[in-house]
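job 3f2a | input accepted
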Amino acid sequence: MKKRHLTGILAMGAVGALALTSCANGGAGDGDAEGGDLGTITLGYIPSWTDGLSTAYLLEDQLTKLGYTVEMQTLTEAGPLYAGLAQGDVDIYPSAWPELTHASYMEEYGDDIEDLGAYYEGAQLTLAVPSYMDDIDSIEDLKGNADRFDGKIIGIEPGAGLTAQTQDVAMPEYGLDEEYELVTSSTAAMLTELGNAIDNEEDIVVTLWRPFWAYGSYDVKDLEDPNGGMGGNEALHFLGTSGFAEEFPEAAELIAGIQLDDEQYASLEDLVVNEYGEGQEAEAIDAWLEENPDAFDTIVTE
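job 3f2a | predicted structure (302 res):
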């Protein structure tokens, strides 16, 4: 029996075909096995950003149970994802940072994007070092110590809001732009370098963010940010293409009811990313729902 705190179901037509160029389509959320009558919703996310990965599969599960067909669209950069959302090629971005980190994208595309609600409060961008670095506790301490880090801050994707905040705001704020290079590649590459450095007890500084499962897997500490160069706390939002709530009212109501606390979010990400992993996301969501049957007011269970 399904538990719903939602209004009556309205039939909707399918949305248009996706026009974006991306990494891949599919996964557990192909939407073909349990397609419903309410229409088709496309979720766009960046797999290496595991907040969006986790919430994408949570939404895939919930929207499918509600009666939608769900398509999963993966991309590698935030810019094309926001563009696709604004153009209607993607219906939902399931974990956006629109208040600070992605503010530039919202300035460019926000008129064609609909805020469907915040699901997590207190997210933040950080610079972090291994916990054994006893004499480096603040971003200020990096100044004059570039030789210890080979003059590098190890970052993630070049198009990430975290990258722009670090390079354009934090590094100039602390005078690090004259001593350090922000090295960008991918989240996976950053974590590989972090893990290798810790295994060898070497000095390294990386860009991170909270919430992120890596804090439970790597012995690191956030550097204090007395000047606020990395920005303040912000909420993580579900964003929809303009007109989403009008076209998909049942989905919008379900999504607006999702708010997760630290423990709920941490267990969701850990199950999807670590306990089950790639190819078993649906099983991870099933396990999470079993452990958190009352996680949010609009939850749909079978």
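job 3f2a | The beta strands are 40-45, 69-74, 92-96, 113-130, 152-154, 181-183, 206-210, 220-222, 234-241.
job 3f2a | closed
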